[in-house]
Fold this sequence. Notes:
By secondary structure, this protein is mainly β. It has one domain (2-73): Roll (Ubiquitin-like (UB roll)), CATH 3.10.20. Helix content is 9%, strand content 27%. The chain has one helix and five strands, in the order E-E-H-E-E-E. It has a five-stranded mixed sheet with strand order 2-1-5-3-4, with no helix packed on it. A hairpin with a 2-residue loop joins strand 3 (50-53) and strand 4.
Amino acid sequence: MVVKVKVFADLRQYIPELGLGESLAVHVESGTTIRQLFEQLGIPESEIKLAFVNGISLEFDHVLSVNDEISFFSPVGGG
């Protein structure tokens, strides 16, 4: 099945071919979780603070469905 992935901020380094606002179509097996997806993409879990699926923040053990749109966000520093 295919899901669409967007990465933001520092996470863009892991998928450098994506332009701002673009998504990547990724083929995954049925039953794939958010955690398995970012592992497949080579993004360390420590680099991901939030994962949104279809606009909803979900835990990393959430099972994905066909055509889901996943957005990954890194921790944000500041002061």
